[in-house]
Amino acid sequence: MAATRFDDRFYLSPADIGWGFWFRWVFFSQLGFLLSLFFVEIGTRPYLGLLPGAIGGAAVGLAQWFALRRYFSAAKWWPIASTIAWALLGASNLGAVGWIAPRSELLLVRAIAGIIDGAQIGLFLGLGQWLVLRSLPKAYWWILLNSFAWAIGLSFGWTVGGILYAIAHLFLCEVLGLALAWAVVAGIMGVALVRLWRGALRSGSR
């Protein structure tokens, strides 16, 4: 069935944007990360630079586009924003952190480094994605919430990965930790998207 355009930015009404969208967003975000592993090998700094960042960002951005396209008219720009943002992160001193495992096995170091690195990449990614979302009222919150989500998610994922690695001594544990990090970030940002869109749609319907 063809989507109904609610206004120039959206295809659906506020009632259509809720837990159903949230689950789609989390699922496709996680799927994008898992598919990216066919092309991007999890590594340590400084071995994941511009090209792996661009490939990984493209995989995740394209997967997220599948979640967004039924709801948001500007979704076509999302894969481009994701690819460019992750490529630039890969070229920076931070690297493509979404595919990087920390060198240290100390859990406290991993947790603190995850907060610091996550906050930085979240700000950068949030700024790139804000260019797509900027037509929404209070879209600047996306930048701040991205920083928060990545700080929490990356710290959690790196810590869990470290715990599992200490038990099993398998590098796969680091991959599982990163997958958890992506899931936490997607969960938080899915809630943020729902709230931003509902606020925009309600203000537009007045």
Protein architecture, described:
With about 210 residues, this protein is mostly helical. It has one domain. It contains six helices and no strands. The longest helix has about 35 residues, at about 170-205. The two termini are about 25 Å apart.
Key features?
mainly alpha, about 210 residues, about 0% strand, 6 helices
List the helices and strands and how they pair.
Elements: H1 19-36, H2 50-68, H3 78-91, H4 107-133, H5 141-168, H6 172-204
What can be said about this structure in brief?
The protein has 206 residues and is mainly alpha-helical.
- How does the overall form come out from the CA principal axes? globular
Query: Which structural class is indicated by helix and strand composition?
Result: mainly alpha
Rg (C-alpha, Å): 17 Å
Mean pLDDT: 88
Helix content: 55-70%
Q: Please count the beta strands (DSSP E, at least 2 residues each).
A: 0
